[in-house]
Amino acid sequence: MVKAKTFIQKFYVGLVCFLLYAPLVILFICSFNASKARTVWGGFTLHWYTDLFQNEEVITAVTTSLLLTTMASLTATLLGTLVCIGMTAMKRRSVKIIEATANIPLLNADIVTGIAIMLLFARFISLGFMSVFIAHVTLGLPYVILNVMPRFAQMDPNVYEAAQDLGASPVYAFFKVVLPEIFPGILSGFFLAFTISMDDFVVTYFTKGPGMNTISTMLYQQLRRGINPQMYALSTLLFLMILILIGISNRLSEVQMKEVRER
Amino acid sequence: MSKRKYLAGPYLVWSAAFIIMPLLMVVYYGCTTENGSFSLENLLALGDPIHYKAFGMSLTIALASTLICLVIAYPLAYILSKYARQSAGLVVMLFILPMWINFLLRILALQMILSNTGVINAVLGFFGISAKRMMYTKGAILVGMVYDYIPFMILPIYNALVKIDPDVVEAAYDLGAGTALVFRKIIIPLSMPGVISGIIMVFIPSVSEFVVADILGGSKILLFGNVIEQEFNVTSNWHLGSGLSVVLMIFIFLSMAVMNRTGTEEGDRVLW
C-alpha cells in the first residue's frame, strides 16, 4: 500500500517533469538534425550552428540584448538600492507609497506597461534603444527593491551607528558595515532584473520601434515567418547560458551561506 | 541622517516620469477622441461585439489555464514538499528552471510538437492514426498558456507548503484526526496564501496574453490582448487601443483586490 503510494507519487512527479522538458529536448535534438523536417532524422550536423554565427540578424539581436540587459539591470540595481537606503530614513507612510508605486509594473499586465511607455516616447521623444532601456529598468526596479528592502529590515541599525561612534565617517561606515549586510539582496535583485529583462518580449515589442531587435523580438519574427532550424541552435545555446548563469548564482549564494555560518 | 533621504531622489524622479506619467498618458488617450475632446466612447467600446467576445474568450481561456495549472501544480507541490530538504532543492529547481527559458523559445518548442507535421502527429501516424489538426485551435492556446505559466503556480504553492510547521500536522494526528481531515483543516488552509499568489501570477499574464494566441492560434482566435495589440500596430487607433487598455487595467486591479482580500484573511502572501 505504502509502496504503491510512493510509486504513484514518483510517477506523477516524473510525468510532469517529462511533459515540461520533452518539447525542449526535441528542440535541442532538432538543432543537430541535418534534415529541415522536424520528424525525419537526416543525420547529425553542426550546420545550423555555423550558419547561426554568420547570420547578421542574429548576431545584432544577441549583442543588442546583452548590452541592453546588462545596462538596464545594472541601472535598476543602482536606483533600487539607492531608494532602499533612502527609505530607511523615511516615515513609514512615505515608504508604503514608494513601495506601492514600485509594484505597479510588477502587478500590471505587461501589455499595458509596454503601451504606456510607448505612448510617452512616441508622443514626446522617439522610440528606439533608449525607450526600451528605460522600460527594462522600470520592469527590473520592483525586483531589486523587493530583494534589498528585507535585508535592511533584518539588519541591526545599531551596528552602523556603532561604527560611526568609533570614528568611521558615514560613507566609510556604509561601505564597511552596511553594504556587506545588504549585498546578497543586491545580488539576487540584480539577477532577477537581469533575467526579467532578458526574457521580456511584450514590453520590448511595444517600445522598440522599427529597425531594432532583441533576442525575443527576433525569435517572434522568425516564429511568424516559419521554420528555421538556426533558431533551434540558438535556443540550445541560450539554454546552456541560462544553466551556467544559474550555476554561478547558486555557487555565489552557497559561498555567502558558508560565510554567514562561519561568522 | 536626514540627508540619506535624498538618495531616494533619482528613483522618485524615475517613477514619476516612467511609471506614473506613462499610465496617465494611457488614461489621457483612452478618454479622448482623435480631435482631443473628452469622451468615454473608447472605454465603452467594450460593448462592441468584437471586443466583448474577445474579452470573454480571454477570460474563459485564462480561467481555464489557471484552473488546470492549479490542479496539476497542487499535488506536485505537495509531493515535493514532503521530500527531504537536501534532495528537494534540485528537484524543485527542475520545475522552476523553465521560468528562465525565453518565453518565445518555449512556444517554439510547443509549436514543433503540435504542428501538422509535428511530433505528436508523427507518433499518431506511426500507429496508423490519421493526423489531427492541433495548431490554430483554442486547445493549442490553452496548452501553450499552461505550459508557459505552470512554474509560476508550482513555486508559490511549494513555498507555502514547506513553511507549514510539521508539529502542527503531527498534533492534529495525535488528537485523532484522519488524513483527509488533516488535509482539509490544516494543509489546505495554511497553503492558501501560496495558492492565491499562484492564481494571481498565472491569471494576470494569461488574461492579457496575445503572443501565444498569435503563434499557436495563428491569429484565427482573437484574445483581448490581440485586439489591443492590433489597435496599435495594425489600425493605429491609439485612442481606442488605450481605452481598451484602461478597461483591462481596471479589470486586473479589481480582480487582484478581490484575490488579495481573500488572501490576507488567510495570512501573508508568498510571492517569491
What does this 3D model show about the protein?
The complex is a heterodimer of chains A (263) and B (272). Chain A has 263 residues and is mainly α. Chain A has helices at 2-30, 47-54, 56-87, 92-107, 110-124, 129-154, 157-165, 170-199, 202-207, 215-225, 229-262. Chain A contains 11 helices and no strands. In chain A, helix 3 runs antiparallel to helix 8. The radius of gyration of chain A is 23 Å and the shape is globular. By secondary structure, chain B is mainly α. Helices cover 73% and strands 0% of the residues of chain B. Chain B has helices at 9-30, 41-44, 49-82, 85-96, 103-114, 119-126, 138-162, 166-174, 179-207, 211-215, 224-233, 238-266. In chain B, helix 5 (103-114) packs across helix 7 and helix 9 (179-207) packs antiparallel against helix 12 (238-266). The chains are: A mainly alpha (263), B mainly alpha (272). Chains A and B meet through helix 1, helix 3, helix 4, helix 5 and helix 6 of A and helix 1, helix 3, helix 4, helix 5 and helix 9 of B.
Round the mean pLDDT of chain B to the nearest integer and report it: 84
Assembly classification: heterodimer
The helix fraction of chain B, in percent, is: over 70%
Order of helices and strands of chain A: HHHHHHHHHHH
Secondary-structure map with pairings?
The complex is a heterodimer of chains A (263) and B (272).
Chain A: H1 2-30, H2 47-54, H3 56-87, H4 92-107, H5 110-124, H6 129-154, H7 157-165, H8 170-199, H9 202-207, H10 215-225, H11 229-262
Helix pairs in contact in A: 2-11, 3-6, 3-8, 4-6, 6-8, 7-8
Chain B: H1 9-30, H2 41-44, H3 49-82, H4 85-96, H5 103-114, H6 119-126, H7 138-162, H8 166-174, H9 179-207, H10 211-215, H11 224-233, H12 238-266
